[in-house]
Predict the structure.
Amino acid sequence: MPTSDRGVASLFERAGESDAAEAEGAALARIGPNAVIQTGQALASRYGSGVTRLIYEAAGLARYLGNPPHAMIDEREPKALFTALRQALPAQEADHVLTDAGLRTANYIVENRIPPRARKLLPKLPPALASRLLVSAIARHAWTFAGSGHFEGRVRGWREPVVILSIKANPLATPGCPWHGAVFQGLFATLTATHVAVVHPRCQARGDDCCEWTIKAATGPQPQV
Ligand SMILES: [Zn+2]
């Protein structure tokens, strides 16, 4: 790539140092706590504390009520939480909560894991370049949302860039993976300053051999909100 990818990518490195060290020393089947924390907040904001408590209890996670995890957690915990809420709620409602949780997670990552300089710079870059830098940054933090799954990301094309992300053996797959789709939607929309359409053509929870997302970045300006 003719651009200074390494130079700009180094913007991400300081914020990732402690995470990387933590991830290195952790067992493979660990995942970032936000998969549980943000799902709890999404549940509480839609249904209140009573329903949240029932679903946490069903998932065996009652100890996290009022005492959310701060460090990496066993990936079986968010998996149990996703399963419990999908069992407790109609599919459409469960997907709504998972989507909200994914957007909250993306917001957390933007605020806390992307250094301020990168946060300011990325939306000003051409989408094709911003997408590439973001995929590179996401790959370095993949354990936060992919756990023991194997994450890969690439971007095709420059004029109309298409981001392709995949997780093999995705530990948090649910049909259509609304949580992951919302995480990616939030990250790419915010940090590439473009409309993005996230499509999930292959899903492990629907019988495919992996989960794969396609994110198309429009080149037009963002709508006024
Ligand atoms: Zn999937």
